[in-house]
Amino acid sequence: MKTPAILAVLAAALVFLPRAAPAAEEPEAVYAKFHRAAMAGDVDEMLKYGLARRRAEMQGASGPTREAALKLVQFMMPRAFKLENKAVNVKSGRATLTVSGPFEGGRHDMDTVYGTVKMVVENGEWKVDEASWSNDKPPVLAAQKPAAPPAAGKAAAAAAGAQAVGSTSQIRKLGEAKPECVYKPVMTAEDVERCK
Asked: What CATH number has the domain bearing residue 98?
């Protein structure tokens, strides 16, 4: 009968293990509120979604300093953004959002800018720690797999539930692919022919 006692001790140990409490809202929802407040020019609302130390820094700032900080934030951010990637480490209470958005360049051209937003859990809520913006695509986006190529042919379109577009009467059979060449220590005449 030692098994129930051991299970009780293990269960009690699991209860007391340190772990990060899950934040109430997702990090991207908190960043969206931060971004919306920044674009609206509401410094106090924007600071609600930032870390306590940032709020403390801005509390003692003069009106012109707060206004200059807001204008800088507004200048660096695009008016709208799209979440491209999210990496959350619940255990450490940290998240990194990769976002993108349209940005009007100096020649009135629209460019895409990419933001890296670092988030931290503070008092059980996600808060914006810092955000940096660049015209360069972040490596995390360059490493993402491209979308699957569209399926070819009428049968594939029908299987996907889509309507086939164009004429399928022009489809030609190209023939079988040449067998793959594999170099071996001892090769038959057939193996040699494949590798010519």
From this structure: 3.10.450.50
